[in-house]
Design a protein that fits this description.
- Keywords: ATP-binding, Cell membrane, Copper, Copper transport, Ion transport, Magnesium, Membrane, Metal-binding, Nucleotide-binding, Phosphoprotein, Translocase, Transmembrane, Transmembrane helix, Transport.
- This protein has 687 residues and is α+β, with helices and mostly antiparallel strands.
- 49% of the residues lie in helices and 18% in strands.
- The strands form five sheets. It has a seven-stranded mixed beta sheet with strand order 11-23-22-21-12-19-20, with helices on both faces. A six-stranded antiparallel beta sheet has the order 4-3-5-10-6-9, with no helix packed on it.
- A hairpin with a 3-residue loop joins strand 3 and strand 4.
- The longest helix is centred in the C-terminal third of the chain and has 35 residues.
- The chain is elongated and about 110 Å long.
- The relative contact order is 0.11.
Length: 687
């Protein structure tokens, strides 16, 4: 498999993971403003402390509540605390609104900013009039509404942040796959430690057994089996010898390698994967949530109705009445219920998900389910278990199958190769006594050798048998290899004693998943870096589903991008680093919990139990969550649809004008209803 990536290096990202600094838990506040969850929590509590005296000392929509009080100078206390609260507690919303307006897409942050700004400025105007100009003037203030709006909106966002953690560590963990230093060969065949970031092309480095390869390169001497699973998703170690290409971040096996650097840290394989993830996340973040779409319409509606109220009431009753009507409309437009409508449902949904092995990391994934057309799935580790099972054991000598398996295990007992560990595990399972071979060595590009009970054995490939003209059943090999197996031969004194066929194990629940997806009219597609024969076998076992084989990370990402360009919404399910760009690109990225940290951090949803069938549970939960969100938004926004025109005085000719007091009561009821409705969310599992 050729792992060279034909991609431009772009900005040339520095791959020294020590230099990368990504926030681990943050939230997009609508316009690109990012806030750390700890800061948000602190801001909420400080704002609440500031708000309590305001709520005790100022009237509620002109109504003095039983628990409220005043004293000489209390109006000054309210004004000063409200000013501090407005600028401190409102800062996240101001920043978010700025981003939304820059993008010409006013939404929730702009609506909140408008509500609290109008409430504060008009209340300040009221304070100046009643304190310095006319103490008996009937100019209502909105300090109570300002304080409660800021605190409840901060609470809503905190609830949502606590329920849904943002994927922020994927890039950092990808960069961390590279070691910090490399052993550079200098003149006189001496070596010295140098930072990986300082490596240049054409330089040669030494990679000792068990170490990470520091950069993309080509082997100039030595041989080893290199584990590329964390980087490429390949389940088996890949034999490397002079002329072979290696990838930075993969793990060297038992042999020592001299590698000539062919790509620096800024344009190597991992760097290109990081850029794919960055670009995919950037484009994905442009998607708009349902709550923001509702907020946008409310913003425009409130602005239009408020301005009309100002103009009409100014003509009828004067500017002060017109101004108060407009302010009432704009303050009512940002109800407490709307700020809690979605966060309460999300909090309930993520709690239910966690109880059922589903970790929802991005709330948008719940909304994207509505239009889902395709589910793309990685093969190894997702649809299969990612471990090599002994599928066939054939003796071609007088050895029994148990004796043959015992010899295979003895020769490979000290090898870390996945095929070897699979056989040793099977031998132990059958209760065989394993005697590790002495003088075990790797055969260049072939297999291993070792001495057991004084006899020299070799474990080799069919290619080795061909090259050394040793007889074996070629048809038998093609049948086993065609079924997706890795075939190994045990030879002694140039005679083939037997062979093993090992293959990845299909998860039993994968069959049911395919059937359930098809019943939901969602098309399953398998994406894999494995060879076509292995992919074809798995696709056939799963009901002849569509598949794409021999894919590099950018190939998977391109398949998804192409499908999206055709107007389809897609989900990607994977577990390896090679899946990270695809997980980020897809409308919904789902990571298998047993997969790599990088895959998990690139995903929107994590299947904690590593059970692919939990995809169905997620789809069912998402659909139920969407219903509740729509219901709550109707309760929250529905209040506005009725209250804003009434507050503007549309029914004034027949004597009906919504008073601030009635508006306050409706607002409170709306908040209670959305909270109660969120609690009715449940996940109904299929039997």
């Amino acid at each position: 498999m050729d792992h060279n990536m034909n991609m431009s290096s772009g900005s040339g990202m520095q791959m020294n993971h020590g230099s990368m600094n990504h926030g681990s838990m943050s939230m997009d506040m609508g316009g690109g403003h990012m806030m750390n969850m700890g800061n948000f929590k602190r801001r909420f509590w400080i704002s609440l402390i500031l708000a309590i005296p305001i709520l005790l000392l100022s009237p509620f929509m002109g109504i003095v509540l039983p628990f409220q009080m005043t004293f000489p100078g209390s109006n000054w206390v309210v004004m000063i605390l409200s000013t501090i609260l407005f600028f401190y507690g409102g800062e996240p919303f101001f920043s978010g609104a700025q981003g939304e307006l820059k993008a010409h897409a006013p939404a929730m942050m702009t609506l909140i900013t408008m509500g609290i700004s109008v409430a504060y400025l008009y209340s300040l105007y009221s304070f100046v009039i009643k304190t310095f100009i006319n103490p008996k003037a009937h100019v209502m203030d909105f300090f109570w509404e300002l304080a409660s709006l800021i605190v409840i909106m901060l609470l809503g966002h905190w609830i949502e942040m606590g329920a849904v953690t943002n994927a922020g560590n994927a890039l950092q963990k990808m960069a961390a796959l590279l070691p910090d230093t490399a052993y550079l060969i200098t003149t006189g065949d001496q070596t010295k430690d140098v930072p990986v970031s300082e490596l240049q092309t054409k330089q040669v480095v030494v990679v000792q057994p068990g170490e990470k390869i520091p950069a993309d390169g080509q082997v100039v001497s030595g041989s080893s089996a290199v584990n590329e699973a964390l980087v490429t998703g390949e389940a088996k170690a890949v034999t490397k010898q002079p002329g072979s290409k290696v990838i930075g971040g993969s793990v060297n096996g038992d042999g020592s390698l001299h590698v000539e650097v062919t790509a620096t840290s800024s344009d190597g394989y991992l760097s290109q994967v990081i850029k794919l993830v960055q670009q995919a996340q950037k484009e994905k973040s442009k998607s708009e949530t349902l709550a923001n779409r509702v907020a946008r319409w409310l913003f425009y509606a409130a602005l239009i109705i408020g301005i009309l109220a100002l103009v009409v009431w100014t003509i009828i009753s004067g500017f002060s009445v017109g101004l108060e009507r407009m302010v009432t409309v704009l303050v009512i437009a940002c109800p407490h219920a709307l700020g809690l409508a979605v966060p309460l449902v999300i909090a309930r949904s993520t709690s239910i998900g966690a109880q059922n092995g589903l970790l929802v990391r991005n709330r948008q994934a719940l909304e994207e389910v509505k239009h889902l057309d395709y589910v793309f799935m990685d093969k190894t580790g997702t649809l299969t278990k990612g471990v090599f099972q002994l599928n066939d054991l054939i003796s071609t000598s007088d050895l029994s199958k148990q004796e043959l398996l015992n010899l295979f295990a003895d020769v490979q007992a000290n090898s870390s190769h996945p095929l070897a560990t699979g056989l040793v595990s099977e031998a132990k399972k059958q209760g065989l006594t394993i005697t590790p071979a002495t003088d075990m060595q790797a055969i260049q590009g072939v297999g291993v050798t070792g001495t057991v009970n004084g006899k020299f054995y070799q474990i080799v490939t069919a290619k080795y048998l061909d090259e050394h003209h040793l007889p074996y059943d070629r048809n038998q090999f093609e049948t086993l290899a065609g079924a997706g197996n890795s075939v190994s031969y045990l030879i002694q004194a140039q005679q083939v004693l037997g062979l093993t066929a090992q293959g990845d194990v299909l998860r039993p629940e994968s069959h049911r998943l395919m059937q359930q997806l098809q019943r939901m009219h969602i098309k399953p597609v398998m994406l894999t870096g494995d060879n076509k024969l292995a992919a074809q076998r798995v696709a056939h076992e799963l009901g002849d589903i569509e598949y794409h084989a021999e894919l590099l990370p950018q190939d998977k990402e391109q398949v998804i991008a192409k499908t999206q360009a055709q107007g389809n919404d897609v989900m990607m399910v994977g577990d390896g680093i090679n899946d990270a760009p695809s997980l980020s690109r897809a409308n919904i990225g789902v990571a298998i919990g047993a997969g790599t940290d990088v895959a998990i951090d690139s995903a929107d949803v994590v299947l904690v139990r590593s059970d692919p069938e939990d995809i169905i549970n997620f789809l069912d939960l998402a659909k139920a969550t969407n219903r509740k969100m729509v219901e709550n938004l109707w309760w929250g926004a529905g209040y506005n649809i009725i209250a804003m025109p009434l507050a503007a005085g549309i029914l004034a000719p027949i004597g009906i004008v919504l008073s601030p007091a009635v508006g306050a009561i409706i607002m409170s009821l709306s908040t209670v209803i959305v909270a109660a409705n969120a609690l009715t969310l449940h996940l109904k599992k299929e039997n």
